[in-house]
Specification:
With 346 residues, the protein is of the alpha/beta class. It is built from ten helices and 17 strands. Helix 3 packs across helix 4 and helix 6 crosses helix 7. Pfam families: ADH_N (PF08240), ADH_zinc_N (PF00107).
Amino acid sequence: MSTAAILQDSGANHKYHNVELAQLPRPVPQAGEALVEVEAAALNHRDLYILAKNFPGTEFGSILGSDAIGRIIEVNGSSDRLRVGDRVVVMPSLGWISDPRGPEDEANYVLLGGTRASGTMTQYLTASLDDLFKAPEYLTDIEAAGLPLAGLTAFRALFTKGQVTKGQNVLVTGIGGGVALFALQYAAAVGANVYVTSSDEAKIERAKQYGAKGGVNYRNAEWDKELLQQTNGRQFDVVIDSAMGPGTATIIRSVMALSGVLVVFGSTVGPVEVGRDLYIRQIEYKGTTMGSRAEFERMLEFVEQHKIRPIVGDVFEGIEAAPKAFQHLRDGKHFGKVVVVLKKSP
């Protein structure tokens, strides 16, 4: 058997769906698949959308979670990359192979966890050998568990969409979440000048420990002017934004350089009318989310090359703690990834 955290309907009178533990039959790998014993799994902001009844394509009874690291304990087929005993991370989606524009078959593209593609918050899972990759050896299980979804999303946002290079000014909004923290680390690793925003002064100060040159509290009335004072008036070549909302219009109007690139991977505040400044100032406005299997492989190579360590905020021990971990994510006070350790490595 395999204990798993699954999504259950809470009914119309409740704001959030439930996370419940269930005993499921241990999955059997089909041809071309491997059976993985999960060491640790991590949570993402999309899990909040799922629990808040605001994510399309959810299925009750589906295992939650998109991120995991584990060891292969059985292989059904042959592979020149992987074998029993390998420590692997799991590609967090299905159906997007290599097209830089987007999934090759959008109708069949699906993220793991809470959908028809069951997720990673389980003691055992099966996955295609093509969707398993050796984890960077220098990372602990807890660190590596938080890498896949957020690490991939940040990599595509920065490099496929934003084309970030050394010396550019890069702004990452809403620092503290997994994607934003990876974006900060990645951009700093290639020599960009990275600044951040947050409503929490402590998070801004912590971001400086990971490469941020400065940051501002976006609740301040003139945060944009304060930010440009920190850069001596130099505007931003690339902005990685997860919020949208009124602040995005301010970014386009006064923070971004002429013909800058605005990459949006979320809308936690909500949609906004950006106005004519978008085209008058020649801004490139690019939406993005997740990434392809090819980008996932390049992301792992990049992380290995620069020895990036995922920032872990809170760790919960045992699959029994999974519901508590999801509740902690809902509270929104974390800085870095929230990880559940399912099995400790020897």
